Amino acid sequence: MIMEKGISSVEVLPSKSSQVTAVKVVVKEPETKQTQRGKRVGFVLVHAGAGYHSESKAKEYKHVCKRACQKAIEKLQAGALATDAVTAALIELEDSPFTNAGLGSNLNLLGEIECDASIMDGKSLNFGAVGALSGFSLAAFKRNKRKLELAEKVETDLIQLKKRRQSNEKVIDSGTLDTVGAVVVDQEGNVAAAVSSGGLALKHPGRVGQAALYGCGCWAENTGAHSPYSTAVSTSGCGEHLVRTILARECSCALQTEDAHQALLETMQNKFIGSPFLANEDGVLGGVIVLRSCRYSSEPESSQEKRTLLVEFLWSHTTESMCVGYMSAQDGKAKTHISRLPPGAVAGQSVAIEGGVCRLESPES
Amino acid sequence: MIMEKGISSVEVLPSKSSQVTAVKVVVKEPETKQTQRGKRVGFVLVHAGAGYHSESKAKEYKHVCKRACQKAIEKLQAGALATDAVTAALIELEDSPFTNAGLGSNLNLLGEIECDASIMDGKSLNFGAVGALSGFSLAAFKRNKRKLELAEKVETDLIQLKKRRQSNEKVIDSGTLDTVGAVVVDQEGNVAAAVSSGGLALKHPGRVGQAALYGCGCWAENTGAHSPYSTAVSTSGCGEHLVRTILARECSCALQTEDAHQALLETMQNKFIGSPFLANEDGVLGGVIVLRSCRYSSEPESSQEKRTLLVEFLWSHTTESMCVGYMSAQDGKAKTHISRLPPGAVAGQSVAIEGGVCRLESPES
Q1: Residue A363: band (very low, low, confident or very high) from pLDDT cuts 50, 70, 90
Q2: How confident is the model at residue A149 (pLDDT cuts 50, 70, 90)?
Q3: Given A131, A224, A246, which is nearest B215 (Cβ)?
């Protein structure tokens, strides 16, 4: 794998609000050279949620992203397809007590866990989802320290929530948005995407969020007759905002234009923050990870034509922060990063965007 | 209300299959003149499903559509907004034992009822949905003759279904697709749409279909900065096909172009039957009712500018038949119609499209 220059962005964001702060983000993507380890190529990008990631827990969030990347890459190196790899990443992310998915899911108003999750295969375009999946026993989670704390906190939080609602106070608890997700491209160029979420903390029982909904939580679509690029997207954030904008599919469509970075930025600005479907919202909270790939030939005359897979990967968020990890099948280890809005930028009104590019070259070439 | 000429269509449909049959449909929309009854204007279009409606039950289907229209119009005449009117229509449609919604819902593999439904308000763009809503007692429905028959049929059907699956036989039981829905425009020009379904007969418990999913079962969007028309759409048919194509929203977007009839036809051909997301399906089964409206002035110099609401209404289906009803607030009674593919046309590969236009003029003008 050869890491290309990171995509840098310097953006002044017009928006519906005049208080929007300009966001300047320059990617720290290093120009690294790894030795070629496996015979297979492939790439994974994961996230542990768009929301607020405290500095004190940064290490744990990064660690789980790293492990998730490694699990996916192990699959890819063993010759698995994108859907298997993306599943492996999700299982690892769900098994962490720090993420709001699977084991670490937020509790609903009844103190129970109800999960949303979905997966999409870019090759077959098949999609599967579960919404408000219950049947988890809280008792089974009590050994887990975080869950125990949460269980004890539910009653207190419930009282506070009721008080807040009574006083009509706007509560944007961006710390509770840490849905997880992953996007993968495999050696054959197939893409897959997945997302998993415990949903809003103290949600009403039966509430279903974006992670279970078609077009909203994840999207994957291999290149086709009218699509020069294969694209995979996974979203995180406020479920209502992501659903009403059908954000995953919207990003995927936008990524068919030439400049992926510009396309994603415009989507986040115009179709998310500026969406008429969210005109009454004070802030629009969400984040996406996207990956797009296409085969290309660096030497047009070469018989090795289209052996190389060009992978562009980006993350963008309007929340305070977003924790991501990524890794190629030929990397020694995953890179992790907590992307943050710059100081002064207002969450829900500003967009951060970062990413990188890599070329995956088949070992034979 | 003045009924304009019906939209007639003579279409030869190219499609992914060479066996597609040309569909010729001429609308029977009569040029009627009604006396002005109420002071309010408004229009409702309902459907009792795209599927197969036997001649023997045609009367019942038409009758429930007529009653649903009347309920909606009563609301509109009383000054209610589109969302209230569309709800009134849905309640009537759900309360019929002949439709696959509410009372008459198909039973799942456990012999229980689980309903999907959603509603969208074009003014606020708010959307609400329930999926696999259970808690209905079968015992409570036993007094209902159809339900009793169904309950007794479940075991037999289950055995047959298992046999079919074992023999890998393709089963398209289009008789089970009779979801219901309605679209409404009120005197203020607001649109609303709703849909309700009992889902597939003998579905797996917990299965959620298009009627519960954003963008898939219904869509309503008032005119806006970038939308010259207010649009409302409700879909019916095979849930998987309607979900994977996000058909309600797709139709709504398409309806912003000038020729509504052409836009809907192209959407049904290219984004539904010809969708790459359904490339592996033998037949693509669904139907939509759509309504779009805009204010216009018949006399540009007049002070009555934009007092008139132009309403175009259409239905289109790839199923054998679709039962619809429609009514204006100034009509004496609803019109009902069972639209059918012409003889020889293959369900799942052919499109029928019909509709009409009416002008709603405020009594004061």
Answers
A1: low
A2: low
A3: A246
What are the beta bridge partners of residue B142?
none
Residue of B nearest to A124 (CA): B277
Which residues in chain B touch residue A124, judged by CB atoms under 8 angstroms apart?
Answer: 280
Residues of A with CB under 8 A from a CB of B: 124-125, 127, 131, 208, 213-216, 224-225, 243-244, 246, 249, 276-277, 280
Q: Which amino acid is at B164?
A: R
The pTM (predicted TM-score) of the whole model is 0.81
Task: Give the span between the Cα atoms of A197 and A178, in whole angstroms.
Answer: 8
The structure tokens listed for A213 are 């909904």
Q: Residue A192: enclosing H or E segment and its boundaries?
A: strand A191-197
Query: Is A319 annotated as catalytic?
Result: no
Determine, for residues B246 and A131 on separate chains, whether the beta-carbon distance falls below 8 Å. Answer: no
Closest Cβ–Cβ partner in A214, A244, A277 for B213: A214
Strand-pair partners of A216: none
Q: B158, B107, B157, B116: which is closest to B137 by C-alpha? A: B107
**3 state DSSP class of A354:** strand
Q: Which of B87, B99, B176, B179 is catalytic?
A: B179
Dist CA A235 CA B353 (whole Å): 37
Please give the structure tokens belonging to residue A272: 């998310």
Kindly report the nearest CA distance between residue B201 and chain A, in angstroms. 20
3-state secondary structure B278-317: HCCCCCCCEEEEEEEEEEECCCCCCCCCCCEEEEEEEEEE
The residues pairing with A46 across neighbouring beta strands, listed in sequence order, are: A182, A325
ipTM for the assembly: 0.78
First vs last C-alpha separation in chain A? 12
At B263, list the tokens: 């836009």
- Nearest CA among B15, B65, B10, B292 for reference residue B178: B65
